[in-house]
Design brief:
heterodimer; A: 181 residues; alpha+beta; Ubiquitin-like (UB roll); DNA polymerase, domain 1; 2 domains; five-stranded mixed β-sheet; 5 helices; 31% helix; B: 285 residues; Uridine Diphospho-n-acetylenolpyruvylglucosamine Reductase, domain 2; Uridine Diphospho-n-acetylenolpyruvylglucosamine Reductase, domain 3; Enolase-like, domain 1
Amino acid sequence: MAIENRKVTVTVNGQERSAEVEPRKLLVHYLRDDLGLTGTHIGCDTSQCGACTIMVNGAAVKSCTMLAVQADKSELTTVEGLGTIDHLHPMQQSFWEEHGLQCGYCTPGVMMAMIGLLQENPNPSEEEIREGMEGVICRCTGYQFIVSAVQKAAKIMAEAAAKDGEAVAASQLVGEGTHRG
Amino acid sequence: MIPVKFDYVHAATVDQAIKLMQDSDGTGKVIAGGHSLLPLMKFRLTEPDVLIDISRIDQLKEVKVEGERLIVGALVTHHDASKHPLIQAHVPLLADTASQIGDLQIRNRGTIGGNLAHADPAADLPAAAFALDAEIIIQGEDGEERMSVDSFIIGPLITMLPENSLVTGVSFSIPPSHAKSVYLKYFHPASGYPVVGVAAMAGTDKAGAIDYIKVALTGVGDVAFRAESVEQTLLGQKPSEKMIREAARLAAEEGEMGSDLFASAEYRENLCKVYTERALRSILL
């Protein structure tokens, strides 16, 4: 059976990108291999570890369990879209300052998942952060430093929102960085 | 891991999805969130020739009250089900259960209809569906039909879904407003799947006697089941610690306990009793 490739167009980190792909291509492979956005990692490849987590239309999703064709016409944010070296996203800044990573392999996915958590719940308790980490696995940190980083990020983001004089949703803090794919 | 080659088409309407299934001559599979289907396809345990994507049929995302029942569109995600005001107000058990499925990312993609159509024996949702007397709404070649969830799910990953038809929604009975509910599970620490999951609802009348009770269990065997012995024992009684403990001893009566690497049948039977007791205590005492 002859199967035609499909053109998949997405807005990723604020830029429109497209590529012709096989229907069976996974979204994470599309990002990494077709668009060159290798910040998103593949860990378990079985929707357990969350290393491949990105935002699809504002919701945290495991990109190893989605087809590129399913993402056609969607808005995506990957770790490359969070911040720049000069202007880190509060989540990146906090992971750095609180040592929320060791080897760093899981980090892009964990940060995206935790931004997803803060969108829902801008001021989570420690318990809620730990529950929110259900969908990510880190084999280095023992999670404690990640919890601290998320607490700090929540604080910075809440302060930034208060400073703006109105409640700025965490979602609006996503995607302001410069695309460097 | 990537699946074997397949073709991929979008269905804009339910009728078109049915037509595309007919055209595929049994080789097509419907995909919504894909969180049950894609893992199987990546392991090449299933190899459809064509995927029919229904995820953009907006009418399947609706939630509405219809008399004494709440209709939840098949495409409502677990995340949206856990937060939806109508679901929280009318069938809080469904919202509670949906909030405990998988993890944040999975709840953002997995759908109510897809979950039940997949009929995974280790899924959380069937417990709530059995407790809430769910009816599966199916659109097929000859129109719409409704099937009770216990006649729809007949085995592990096996349903009575007719050929060339589609789950378009699920209808849940709305419990009386005085009923409290809970979903409680003992889950495998790595997978998060319930080894035993108990969905319970109960309420008492003005005299303090139990006038409404539903208990359903999932994860323990091939299919979820209603613990009718527990319900019958407690109905009309005034709840007490002793009464609940004695009734919970019957929690495994109607089920067939599975035995696997996670838990033996004997252990599962014990977990059924312990978790049913805990669930009922939390809503009745």
